[in-house]
């Protein structure tokens, strides 16, 4: 009986992993979108199929949030596009992850803890 239970847990875990993989692929990313805003952005857009990342930049007291390409998430490409030379930035690849650095980290940590809890419950 114990061997059967372990096999069922493994099957359930495999199904969950496959579902997560399918659910996370094939959909358009959503990112916050604001230009030169002094406060956190509340507007969001669906990104183009060529845009696979969300970008947030800070320069002085202003923030710009938008859809972006992960392959262009570097100082040089961002500086050329926005014509800036002194800014902070980060890119991420989950829906609405570019609202703020702290929140993005907290959401990532929360996601990891949720998955680990689910795995622990299955085993």
List keywords for this structure.
123 residues, alpha+beta, CD59, 4-stranded antiparallel beta sheet, two-stranded antiparallel ribbon, 3 helices, elongated, disulfide bond
Topology:
Layout: H1 2-24, E1 30-32, E2 34-37, E3 44-46, E4 53-59, E5 62-68, H2 75-82, E6 88-92, H3 101-122
Antiparallel strand pairs: 1-3, 2-5, 4-5, 4-6
GO cellular component, one term: external side of plasma membrane
InterPro entries: CD59 (IPR056949), CD59_antigen_CS (IPR018363), LY6_UPA_recep-like (IPR016054), Snake_toxin-like_sf (IPR045860)
Subcellular location: Membrane
Can you describe what's shown?
Helices cover 43% and strands 24% of the residues. The chain has 123 residues and is of the alpha+beta class. It has a domain at 28-97: CD59 (Ribbon). Strands 2-5-4-6 form a four-stranded antiparallel sheet, with no helix packed on it. It is elongated and about 60 Å long. Residues 15-25 and 102-110 have low confidence and may be disordered.
Question: What's the short version?
Answer:
It comes from Anas platyrhynchos platyrhynchos (Northern mallard). The protein is α+β, with helices and mostly antiparallel strands and 123 residues long.
Query: Which of globular, elongated, flat, extended, rod-shaped describes the shape?
Result: elongated
- Examine the secondary-structure arrangement and name the CATH architecture of one domain: Ribbon
What's the total helix number?
3
Assembly context of the chains: single chain
The secondary structure category is: alpha+beta
Helix content: 40-55%
GO molecular function, one term: protein sequestering activity
Pfam families: CD59
Keywords: Disulfide bond, Glycoprotein, GPI-anchor, Lipoprotein, Membrane, Signal
Membrane topology: Lipid-anchor; GPI-anchor
